[in-house]
UniProtKB/TrEMBL annotation:
UniProt organism field: Anabaenopsis elenkinii CCIBt3563
Residue ranges of domain FIST in the record: 35-243
Residue ranges occupied by any FIST C-domain domain in the UniProt entry: 244-388
Any one Gene Ontology cellular component term annotated for this protein: plasma membrane
The entry's keywords: Cell membrane, Membrane, Transmembrane, Transmembrane helix
Source superkingdom: Bacteria
Pfam families (alphabetical): FIST, FIST_C
Membrane topology note: Multi-pass membrane protein
Descriptive protein name: FIST C-terminal domain-containing protein
SMART domains according to UniProt: FIST, FIST_C
Subcellular localization, as worded in the UniProt entry: Cell membrane
Length: 409
């Protein structure tokens, strides 16, 4: 009988860095019966002045071959009672440890200026990352929001590693880039105990491991799907052969008063990812912001490149829509017959949490209601990384869940 993977998460709100690290290491190690192969640490920006001490302190208390992590304005973890907790804007550390038999664990760090051109061969990307494409690795990426060229990196990874799952988030802080930190250490690759301020640190897991994803973008569609009949880069010039702004005004006029008020501050577009799918549901759209309108031309600018022939549908986002979206996705996941989940990571937008729902722990508790008794770790991101429609994107106002399980039970 094959050995089973084991995961543990620990959370500490001790205000002293030494005490908090001691706390999470003791809790997490005591939950495992085997030595950990992997550590993932998320640390709140309350400790920003002490980031350089994080890996040395962890290595004093913990012997683990591979460790990655990053800073966040808030962190997510599992309490001693097994409940998930989201801690926003306060001193906290979340540590996840994994014992992963039959799994190959590799780490890497890449800077934006090192990335190949987007027309380069897959081999150029594989050489840069240093991870073989077979068996398909499962990637967790932690990126700086500054000069990381994360969108180019995601396109390159999708191209070079077809069939791989890519999730993660952009580090966040209470200040500028100087307060953002990425952590990466590996005993055997000469990376030992490195702190980075820019680029992307990545974790590649291959072998007997699967990362299932739930990408909750938190919107509900309004009106009907429409086709972009004229566009230039990110500017929509015609929708269904009509002036986009006129189409939008007619749509808003058809809404209820409550929806019209919401549309003034929380209106988005959903780009349809499968142009051949007729019945559209949650998960079929890539949600993008509306950046502005040109009243004279009636054009609408959005936060992504769009081409003629694409379909889109306008969307509204609020706490109720976000809750319904996540619940529908969780219900869909629960109905699928997979090997039992062993752990989960949550990469949640800074714009969610208390600011969206008016209460703490909403996303993590809803997740726990459907997928319970698994250790959860994560943080509040400046951009969330996850797949939609077979490709990987950076999202906003989204919660990306990565559910880790063995390939075979």
């Amino acid at each position: 009988m094959a050995e089973q993977m084991q995961w543990a998460n620990a959370l500490s709100t001790r205000p002293s860095l030494e005490a908090a690290i001691t706390d999470v290491v003791e809790q997490a190690v005591s939950s495992l019966t085997e030595p950990a192969d992997l550590g993932v640490v998320f640390i709140s920006s309350a400790f920003a002045s002490e980031y350089s001490r994080v890996l040395p302190l962890l290595s004093e208390k913990l012997s683990v071959p591979v460790m990655i992590g990053c800073s966040g304005l808030g962190v997510i973890g599992t309490t001693a009672t097994g409940k998930p907790q989201e801690l926003e804007g306060e001193a906290a550390i979340s540590l996840t440890l994994g014992y992963l038999p039959g799994v190959n664990v590799e780490v890497f760090h890449v800077r934006g200026e090192e990335l190949p051109d987007l027309d380069s061969s897959p081999d150029a990307w594989i050489d840069l990352i240093g991870v073989q494409p077979s068996p398909s690795p499962q990637f967790i990426l932690l990126s700086s929001a500054f000069s990381s060229r994360i969108n180019d990196l995601l396109q390159g990874l999708d191209f070079a590693y077809p069939g791989s799952v890519i999730v993660g988030g952009q580090a966040s802080s209470g200040g500028g880039s100087s307060q953002i930190s990425l952590f990466c250490s590996h005993d055997g690759q000469g990376i030992h105990q490195r702190l980075y301020r820019e680029g992307t640190v990545g974790l590649a897991l291959s072998g007997n491991v699967v990362l299932d994803t739930i990408v909750a973008q938190g919107c509900r569609p309004i009106g009907q799907p429409m086709q972009v009949t004229k566009a230039e880069r990110n500017i929509i010039l015609e929708l269904d052969d009509k002036v986009p702004l006129m189409v939008l005004r007619d749509l808003i006029a058809s809404l209820s008063e409550e929806e019209r008020i919401l549309a003034q501050r929380s209106l988005f577009v959903g780009l349809v990812m499968d142009q051949f799918k007729l019945s559209l549901q949650q998960g079929d759209f890539l949600i993008r912001s509306i950046l502005g309108v040109d009243p004279s031309a009636g054009a609408i600018a959005i936060g992504d490149v769009i081409r003629p022939g694409q379909r889109l549908q306008f969307q509204l986002r609020d706490a109720q829509a976000s809750a319904q979206d996540l619940e529908l996705l969780l219900q869909g996941y629960q109905k699928q017959q997979f090997s039992p989940p062993a752990a989960a990571f949550i990469f949640s937008c800074l714009g969610r949490g208390q600011g969206l729902y008016g209460q703490s722990n909403f996303d993590s508790e809803l997740f726990n209601r459907y997928i319970h008794d698994v250790p959860i770790g994560g943080f509040f991101c400046n951009g969330e990384i996850g797949p939609v429609g077979g490709n990987t994107f950076v999202h906003g106002y989204t919660s990306v869940f990565a559910i880790c399980r063995p390939m075979i039970s």
